[in-house]
Amino acid sequence: MRHFALTALPLALIACSADNATGQNAVLEKPFKTSVIADFDAPWAMTFLPDGRMLITEKADEMILFDPKNGTKIPIAGIPKVDSAGQGALMDVVLAPGFAENKNVYFSFSEAGPGGKGVALATGRFDQASDGTTKLDGVKVIFRASPYVDGNGHYSGRIAFSPDGKYLFFTNGERQKFDPAQAPKSTLGKVLRLNLDGTAAAGNPLAAKGFHPAVWSYGHRNLLGIAFDKDGRLWEQEMGPKGGDEVNLIKPGLNYGYPLASNGSHYDGRDIPDHKAGDGFEAPKVWWNPVISPGGLVYYSGDLFPQWKDSLFIGGLSSQALVRVKLDGENAAKADQWDMGARIREVEQGPDGALWLLEDGGQGSRGRLLKLTPVG
């Protein structure tokens, strides 16, 4: 395992502030200090335990219990076999509602199975023995994407619980197969609403129309972030094709267009019709071209950066950026884009309101865990 260092990076001076009305960019100082807390091997996701420790997933197959106070890293046993080829990974990790009592952890991962590969959703009980040995006990897969197909891309696999704790929302990417995003019986290219045991929730809006009973919305590409805001709205970000990265307000039963509509184009140059009024598809609230390659997503509700309350923060992969989107009810607008000098895979809000980032660990990034706090 790599050693950690509590060091502050120099404050970089250049960032991009997008003026939504003019499209102009301004030069400004970063309003945060960046501290390097630890280094990991291609980390993918993180979540905080009630005591301030963290669960961090690494791409290959490792989940780690990490203590940011002293740098201790403890591998967690019980993780199923992960197929990490290409974009495959041990993916998201989220604590169950009522974790303080039930100790349940939900996580997603890519696996090989009959007919190909797909993303699976699993749960297990966090268990740490007196000698420090840690495992997820009773791990079981409670949901698998359908169908499993060949290829190593666009698994998605993000998890969010409804504010009332009754439902689990799970993203399934369209696996670079295009058409499944519109196919009713497939879960690919969809946002799903499940019960906590992984079964399809009753009352999902498209079941009566012949869709897979878990489908909540469809017409998506590679959904790498979902988060609820303070008023219970569900926001989602996804990678578009060549151009057209999106932030969407997810509403039940709506078709978000892909691959029939997108503000980007196919990588082979073929055009995709842009979103336009009256086309029958729900258009994104915000979109980017050139792309930012969005990774993780978090809704900010903390007090440490009060000026950023009611914002979404997005990790930028190819853009090597931290991106802020300002929310206003059902509307959203580009706000800030800070150059982080590395691919940012994940963004999380810490218990004290600090922002925590995970570098991707690929294509020149080092896989570091960063903590952002106010300057001064």
UniProtKB/TrEMBL annotation:
PANTHER family referenced in this protein's UniProt entry, alphabetically: ALDOSE SUGAR DEHYDROGENASE YLII, HEDGEHOG-INTERACTING PROTEIN
Official protein name in the record: Dehydrogenase
Superkingdom of source: Bacteria
Coiled coil residues, start to end: none
Leader peptide range in chain numbering: 1-20
Classification via SUPFAM superfamilies: Soluble quinoprotein glucose dehydrogenase
Ranges where the Glucose/Sorbosone dehydrogenase domain occurs: 40-365
